[in-house]
Amino acid sequence: MGSQEYYADVKAQESIQLNKKILMYIQDGTSLGFGCGAGILQLEGLRGFGFFAASYLAVIGIFVGWFCKFKPAKYYQSPIQEILVDSLFRELAGFVMAWTFVHALVG
Amino acid sequence: MFFPELFTGAVGAAVDLTLDPMLKYWVLFPISIVMILVGVCRQYIMVLLSLKTKTVSQTRLTEVQYISKAQALLGNGSNLCEESFKMRQEYLANILAEGKFLAQKEKPETPANPLTDPNASDAMMGMATSNLANYIPQTLIMWWVNHFFAGFLLMKLPFPLTIKFKEMLQNGIMTPDLDPRWVSSISWYFISTLGLAPVNNLFFGGSNDEPELQAIAQQQQQIQSVVGGPAPDVMMKGLSNDLTIAQHESCFDAIEERVLRLYAD
């Protein structure tokens, strides 16, 4: 019964928006912070990007575990898309900016 | 001939340059601060520009609201019980078919010219100003950076770049063999334009009035008739037809089962 399943699948768009906003705030802050860290450690080349990937995945892992209690589908419409993919390039750009800035300041 | 040149290029790249440490304080910081401040100013200017309230005649407002009421009934009718849905369906279908709340009863003979219509030109002005608010600061900052901070290297990027970036990022530095990782100030401008969105969100993104502004903008967009869109009387007729044939299925059917399943685990 299609419509019954549809009615059972009630989602509040406002709450999903708020959840996305919180996630974005956390990701923005942590990617800038880890960018500064990479600059202070004077990482160069692929090691810096590896540091970004590791920190990005770690933050998402902690977020899913701590905020979502390992049930991200309960808080997001399409969890992988919204948590992992959507803000990847935004955070990468922020990370690279903080990284080059601190790298130039320290080095 | 070709290989030795390439070889010296590789040797030249390995040479480490020493930069004046004061470059950080007199070039890197000013550019960053100016970019952040311009971002903030642009945000507030956009708010100021978008807060123009427009007066709309009451009849036009009624018309728009009855159209959206019919659309809401079609979209969310399953939340009503059978009886109330039937009641609303009948009423709205009648009203819309009659065209009781049409703002303009008789059609104007020629379609309105979008260039002379004040509302349409207002909308176009809004679009133009928002575009200009994006482009003017960018061009200005780029000119400023290129003009005042040209002709020297600013820093060494922590990641390697291909040789293609040399022309763009080492603009004005006459060293053909230098590693493209050494870049001039314009590249810091590029990197920070890309990466400033998280910074702005972090420091200035906590405002709570965003949803309200969006709602206002959406409402205004709804009221302004789209140029070349369907006329309101045609829309009303179509909605009336849709309403008369709409099938109703209530979401309250078998709700006990679904609620029990929702809280089962």
Automatic annotation (TrEMBL), chain A:
GO terms assigned for molecular function: membrane insertase activity
Residues annotated as signal peptide: none
Transmembrane segments: 49-68
Alphabetical UniProt keywords: Endoplasmic reticulum, Membrane, Transmembrane, Transmembrane helix
Pfam family name, one: EMC6
UniProt key word rRNA-binding: no
GO biological process terms, semicolon-separated: autophagosome assembly; phospholipid metabolic process; phospholipid transport; protein folding in endoplasmic reticulum; protein insertion into ER membrane by stop-transfer membrane-anchor sequence
GO cellular component: EMC complex
Entry keyword Nucleotidyltransferase: no
InterPro entries: Emc6, EMC6-like
Recorded topology in the membrane: Multi-pass membrane protein
Main location: endoplasmic reticulum
Cellular localization per UniProt: Endoplasmic reticulum membrane
Family named by the database record: Belongs to the EMC6 family.
Identification of the protein by name: ER membrane protein complex subunit 6
TrEMBL record, chain B:
GO cellular component, one term: EMC complex
KW Transmembrane (keyword) present: yes
Family: Belongs to the EMC3 family.
The keyword Membrane appears for this protein: yes
Domain of life: Eukaryota
Coiled-coil stretches: none
Transmembrane regions listed in the UniProt entry: 25-51, 140-159, 186-204
Role played: The EMC seems to be required for efficient folding of proteins in the endoplasmic reticulum (ER).
Primary localization: endoplasmic reticulum
Pfam families in the record: EMC3_TMCO1
Keywords from the UniProt entry: Membrane, Transmembrane, Transmembrane helix
Source organism of this protein record: Lachancea lanzarotensis
GO aspect biological process, one term: phospholipid metabolic process
GO molecular function annotations of the record: membrane insertase activity; protein-folding chaperone binding
PANTHER family linked to this entry: ER MEMBRANE PROTEIN COMPLEX SUBUNIT 3
Membrane topology: Multi-pass membrane protein
Listed name of the protein: ER membrane protein complex subunit 3
Record's subcellular location: Endoplasmic reticulum membrane; Membrane
